[in-house]
Amino acid sequence: MIIKLSFALLWLLGMSLHAQQPVTLLLINGKIWTVNPEQKEAEAVAIRGNRIVAVGSTSEILKLKESGTEVIDLDGRRVLPGFDDAHVHFFSGGSNLAGPQLRYAKSQEEFRATLAEFAQHTPRGQWITGGDWDHENWTPARLPTRQLIDNVTKDWPVFVNRLDGHMSLANSVALKLAGVNRNTKDVPGGVIVRDSEGNPTGILKDAAQGLVERVIPAPSQEQIRKAIKAAQAYANANGVTSVQDMSASPDVFRTYQTMLHKGELTVRISGHQPLVSWQRLANIGLVADFGNETLHIGGLKGFADGSLGSTTAWFFQPYLDAPNTSGIASAELVHPESIWANIEHADAAGLQIAIHAIGDRANNTILRFYERLEREHGERDRRLRIEHAQHLQPSDVPRFGRLHVIASMQPYHCIDDGRWAEKRIGPERAKTTYAFRSLLDSGATLAFGSDWDVAPMNVLMGIYGAVTRRTLDGKHPDGWIPEQKITVEEAVRAYTMGSAYASFDEKIKGSIEPGKLADLAVLSDDIFSIDPIKIADTKVWMTIFDGRIVAEPSNPRDRYKQDRSGLLLR
């Protein structure tokens, strides 16, 4: 294992003669997984300010201790680079922490009771949003209706989303405020679910959600700030030090900038704007990765379709449990040449493109657009992304590697959707669902994330999902589609270096090596040596962001042992 350090130490010692700032933090007696192929394992790390300056053995690193250096004895704990969540919805996730918690309601009755209780503690007339409900947890798995909640929410407009964000339930108050009734026409890329008489049931899918969203009051800057602070506290508790926000609206990005200037950010943020709004970035000359080490922008996100749970993911073949539909193209993709024009012009402006695609037809369509882009405009380092890349035709898998398309995927979805996905698409189409192994073998880059708040921002559960593929209901103990499992090392890399590469950041983060940012996650257990099933029980023991501890044990004294002379005890 040990530990080629000579060049790094010589560099460090030479620099220290001139550096005014001392070495500020040493982590010793650990199991450091660096993600650096030239030095995968180490025992200790030295940090000066916000940079890693040396990686090596405990005895070597202790030689760098100065009078003001803090030393933390890891007592054999596993250390990884700080996790980089490649796909989150940061403001909405933070905001939903304060909303009704409907995700784990096990029945329509519990769903209704939870909303009723929440309403009683909400000022009358105030919108109730969020929720993250999942009707697949109910028996039978039937969609809720406005009638289910109307009489317990008659004094509040309610618009609560399914956990995938691709459909929401409005009560009658909300529908009235939005002017949605039996005469309202469906919108392109969306569905108003109706009863047998043609009246809206309250369920609005995909683009139809905008009919209600447009009348919900915009949050204030202070409300956004509070939501972001809650979101980053949750991220840090899970070892996450970087996020790629797929819905960083101008108001949210403005708040990020304010918090950056005040020193309030404890995560690094890569913000994405809607693909359809590419001109507002291009017109002022922004290109991909504009900004600094903590906050940057230049990415665009588009949509090709909806979601599997909402039966709006776009497939070549119909759904087995809804044979009247094969899903829908998004509002952006209803007119293919329109989305192509946005892709082409945004690329010419130097912006990065990421497109949500769930169904096999949606993925195939976007891959063909990307192929056309390279054919007509030449190869360059675009780092094109497909967000989710969930259901693929076997013939499309190798196209990711050949076209250098990043598969930005969320392994928690695999063990969640795997409970019920086959009733939608059957076992044959499922074989290339969340095809981690096949994509890696084809030469594709995986960038892992959570899709929070669609799923928990629990990276260790994501690693567990990618490695074991054991569904949350316990019905696949050997793994759902086990041939698509990957190793712990491969999953960790996808959550670190893979995600860093996806945001053009691989030179400053994603691995533990001299010169890189001091973002680290310390785990309670060694996920490389324990039974993979036990990864689900592993916790983040400490999180270091920018060289500072931002999450730690409840008793800080648990993090190191020193005698009165300051010498480390073993």
Provide a quick synopsis of the model.
The chain has 570 residues and is of the alpha/beta class.
How would you sum up this structure, described in words?
The protein has 570 residues and is an alpha/beta fold. It has three domains: 6-82 and 519-559, Urease, subunit C, domain 1 (Roll), CATH 2.30.40; 91-213, Diaminopimelate Epimerase, Chain A, domain 1, CATH 3.10.310; 299-496, Metal-dependent hydrolases (TIM Barrel). Helices cover 30% and strands 20% of the residues. The protein is built from 19 helices and 24 strands. The strands form four sheets. Strands 8, 14, 15, 16, 17, 18, 19, 20 and 21 form a nine-stranded mixed beta sheet that branches. It has a six-stranded mixed beta sheet with strand order 3-2-7-22-23-24, with helices on one face. Strands 9-10-11-13-12 form a five-stranded mixed beta sheet.
Q: CATH H-level name of the largest domain... which superfamily?
A: Metal-dependent hydrolases
The averaged pLDDT comes out at 92
Low-confidence stretches: 1-19, 560-570
Count of strand segments? 24
For the record, the count of structural domains works out to: 3
N-to-C terminal Cα separation, in Å?
A: 21 Å
| CATH topology category name of the largest domain | TIM Barrel
Please, how many helices?
19
